[in-house]
User: Fold this.
Amino acid sequence: MKTFVCVILVGFFCLSGSLETKQSPPKVQVYSRSPGDFGKDNVLICHVSGFYPPKIKIELLRNGQVMPEGKQTDLAFEENWFYHLTRHTPFRPNKGEEFACRVTHMGVSNIYTWEADM
Assistant:
């Protein structure tokens, strides 16, 4: 019986250790709902997928400043336990402005810039 308990405990610790070391950086897409025309209302979207662990921060930026009015979907996972999340906000792009998405995962921040279709 002691041997059986030891085998179960060793298996549990090996399995839990492999889950903690599983890491995958996010794949990020920044786009708008409609073609990016200056002076027209639109929606800025940042879709982040394929990441693990699930702790992540997504911020939408206008000229480097956080756009606080954004909304975010609920965190969801796929069959392989990698996660995906989308953040979006209404915006009206003007010539000379820069829009971007800042994603922070595992202590690393990256900025992904929106490219207007003009």
In short: The helical segments are 2-21. The radius of gyration is 20 Å. Confidence is low (pLDDT under 50) at residues 4-19. Strands lie at 27-32, 42-51, 56-62, 65-66, 71-72, 76-77, 83-91, 99-105, 108-113.
